[in-house]
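Worked example

This section walks through a single chain of length 1274. The input is the sequence exactly as stored; nothing has been trimmed or padded.
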Amino acid sequence: MSSLICSLVRIKFFRKEGIIKIYSNYLKLLTSLFTLVFLPFLFFIGCNSSSSKKDKKIKISRKSELRIKQLISNNDIISAEPYNYNSYNKDTLKRFEYLDSISTGINFKNIWNPKEKYKHQLENSFISAGVAIGDFDNDGLLDIFLSRQQDGGRLYKNLGAMKFKDVTKNVGVLDNDMWSTGASFVDINNDGWLDLYVCGFESPNRLYINYEGKFKEQAKSYGLDFKGASVMMAFADYDNDGDLDAYLLTNRVNMSKDSVMANLIKDERGNLKVKEKYKELGYFLDRPGNIPVLINAGQYDYLYKNENGYFVDVTVESGIGKNPHYGLSATWWDYNDDGRPDLYVANDFMGPDHLFQNLGLDSNGVIKFKDVVSEAIPYTPWFSMGADYSDINNDGKMDLMASDMAGSNHYRDKLSMGAMTGPDSEAWFLNFPDPPQYMRNMVYLNTGTNRFMEVAYLSGLATTDWTWTVKFGDLDNDGFEDVYFTNGMSRDFMNGDAKDRFRSQKNKLIDNFNFWNSQEPYRLNNMAFKNLGNLKFKDVSFDWGLDHFGVSTGSALGDLDNDGDLDLVMNGFDEPVRIYRNNTENNNSIRLNLKGKDANKKGLGAKVEMFLNNNETKLLRYVSSSRGLMSSSESTIHFGLGAENKADEIKIHWPSGKVQSLKNIPSGHLYTVSEKSNSIKNNQKKEVMFVKGINSISNTKHQESFFDDFSREQLLPNKLSQLGSGVAWGDVDGDGYDDVFLGAASGFPGKIYINDGLGNFREIVQEVFFRDANYEDMGSIFVDPDNDGDLDLYVVSGGVECNQGDPILQDRLYLNDGDGNFSRASAGLLPRIYESGGIVCAADIDKDGRLELFIGGRVIPGKYPQSPRSYILKNSGPRFIDSTEDIAPELKQKGMVTSAIFSDVDGDSWIDLLVTYEWGPVRYFNNVSGKLIERTKEVALSDRLGWFNSISSGDIDNDGDMDFIVGNIGFNTKYKASPSNPELLYYGDFEGNGQKNIIEAKFEQSVCLPRRGLSCSSNAMPIVKEKFPTFHQFAISSVEDIYTEALLNSADKYVANELASGILINNTDLNGDISFEFRALPRITQSSPIFGSTLCDVNGDGYLDLYVVQNFSGPQRETGYMHGGISQLLLGDGSGSFTPVSSLESGLIVRGDATSLTINDLNGDGSPDFLIGVNNGNYELYINQCKTNSLSIRLPDYPKGRKYAGSKIWVYYVDNSVQLHQLSIGGGYLSQSAPIIFIGNKQNIDKIMVEWPDGLKNELDVEFLSSDISFLDK
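Given that input, the structure is written out below as tokens.
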């Protein structure tokens, strides 16, 4: 019966004015035979039984049939078209199958043959060509437009079953005189038919208006016939008035500086500048410490506002302004989720990228934009190319990726690195702009705040070769959007050897163009990465069949065969177009066609949320026109569902402001949804956990004087001159409130701020700090070594702005007069310590009632990475003496100390010491009756070698012993270390001249290779260039080939095999046998090097939480800043696990180089607040807003006289769990917090025990404790 029905009837469900209508040649007959009860059978069973294989539909369950009928009846959707059966070739082993021109009927090639005057465009972006996908004839099949350097491009009609026909001439889009570039299908006049906009190079752009499948060119009548170096027109309704506006992205026509040089004038100061009318030819860029450089300019981009069908240039009045750069992609997206489309513009070479935030209407009724790129983004690609957006981690916030041309392997990286110094080097530019520009891809992770994280290395997407297209889409329907890259170039213009060959021509017998024209195209493999979730992507280029070797440029995605997965179209340079059919067996997806009413017809600018798995999983899509490079994908919204067979809810946020909800939506269909609004409750905005505090401390800036670390050690990995600032809390005036010392860099005085107990601080100017301003303050602590009842200040001197053994490295002790006024202690009170130090911490190691100090040696100036000396200073009564040999001889020269903490690890009441190192393990020194004995190997710590920065303590699993947090460099850098493939550093004399140099090394496919390139290495060691004169020779050589195995064996060798920041779980048993278990912190926390860290109960639930601060500007410029993080709060669960809290919820956002992190209760509410030191930036205060049920217990040194360093507090809960707290002086990173313990879950506390360092124990009466108790001595 179903076959008979389908032979008689073609049925389509749709809604019009609330009535379900059936169109049929036999409507009257069928109406008398069938009722609405049988409609599902007609649609689903009937059409599934089609005799035509190409129309065969997937099977739909009875439950889904009924639900779809209900959705249509309720006017929730217009129609639901089940997917075609996936009839792919079963013998195909790859997910994507390349279909040749014989199979598809698309015989198209972008042939490079420009006119003579444009031949220099060979080295520009116009070798690229675009792709546009859209259903221009409304037959339900996606059609394809392909652009190219000649004849205006071609339009191919989809005939079904992946067959296409060239209809360019028939439908009226033939233009033999046009060099077409970017193209997009867009319904510019809101008539329900897709129009076609095609950009041109040096020919007027074309706008083909669609008249029901036939086109007429009308660009001029719309005001969009710009002629020049057009790359792409990106359409969006940026003013949300229901019609589409546009941004025209341009590049450059003229490729020479000659025309600029003739049009220079001098300003009033005598400086050369380009005449205003010629600024689209060139501009000057100021270089640090050098004369300005003349840069070729591009044409201005233009923003057009649609005013009743005519597009008006509003570029300047909108605030976007005239920017003469080499544009390569323009992407509309709503990054801050305010309903207004924002714009990311990627510019090539030295042109800055822009993030134009849409501010909405100003007081004059004009839509304004503001470039917030330097506020929102830590750095951008240097040669920015394609860009695309996606919610890569399914957190409901839209992220963005921009591409560059960094080599995906060692050979390509070193071959294209070029000169890092010298007259031909442009490396000076890397850290020069704001934000800096680095030659690699960037992945901007949206935090929901005004600052993005950058996670390209963390996600595995930083280096994908010369990448034009970035294209996100769920290519395997698993619920995560994957990413595809097109690669290659007309010539390898970054090839260091080729550039040297051209420059070496004595008489320049061949000009630049002819030299490069004689070279071969730079063919590369395209790449595809599967999104594994948790910010991890896996290279599946080969496995998925998307590793084409050639020169590929524009590409677009769309379901060309209506089988529920995304197919791919790729255009290229001097090669045929490539059509890929997606052979994913899983049709488990939902696709949406939006029909706007109040908004534009295709719903551009709509945000669509999908909720799965009982609303636990959230997927996000955004509808935009231009994505990637010169291309536009289908406007249909595609959601892969993974293992789910339905969406719990779909929310459509229309550009008009309406919000529409669809619930219980079966998979396997293309749904058409018309705009309407539902009554949806807005989610109430959560209050943030912390707010920024503003007072005199937060207005204080830590400042650095510039020092070039690399002039002394050219191959130094990181600067060592900007490692501060340190912070210490202590009650210096005896009023019961903790005051604060802020350390300073060389050239600036430290500061003391007095706390009035109400959250206000005033500075007490210390003359001695001005006299000592040339010292570099590192670690600092408040102690009372003279036992006079007030806190004195010990400050470690560090830095490298001096030579080894310089007296400026002497540590300092400042004595307190009791009122907070300090003077320098006499020289005899401290031993001579002419070492560049870092951390200081204090404890009573030998239980004599006096505190010993551990001073960690950080570095030897000019001799990195040799080990400096570290010290144990014993308080002998009248003075400190060096007792290292007596107490802890093993820690004297163990390496470069970064941090340390005293803690009773094994619970024997003797305070132990843990020390972190750069290029070393976390070392454990067990206190045996007042002697510190190293037992690192015995506790399973010796084999884990890292670049550890910090250590903090806390009982994170509520088992009654101390666990530890160790900060490391993380996973978001170029460095990748493991036990089998560690990072290496050799330090030795490799030239035989007595000068030691640094060699960094890595492993790639089990071969040990140099980290640094030929230019850097040979500048430091000329013998390298003599032995390997070309970049190619250097790039194919191992470390052993370059430096010889004998010289490497004679050098000092350093190893790092662990880069994760993590937890050391203390598994000490009842017998006191110690072992540590390392657990990496959650992946998001590995986004940047961790310096300051602290464990405390921020929300009062009885479990210790973790807050870490991040970032580092020290790396040499080839590596680039490590600014991927913005700090991270993680909530503990009492078992040793932590859950990251978004910065949107926590309110904690620290952009700069955060170093020290300390805790105090700044407003007396019983909750922990944070003070963060920022190197070369303002100190930042964050005040806790959580309404907690907590106790805060303060154990001050005075006035009662009992020492608190090392005191232990056990909190016993009614569920038999025990939480241990121990107060330490020093720890974290250059930090001393206030002596306060914060205890949560007060109502479930059974008892609290305190053990003082002298052995005295107290049990506190919990009933008498209040949330703001100050416990002194009972």
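What to look for: Residues 62-73 form the longest helix (12 residues).
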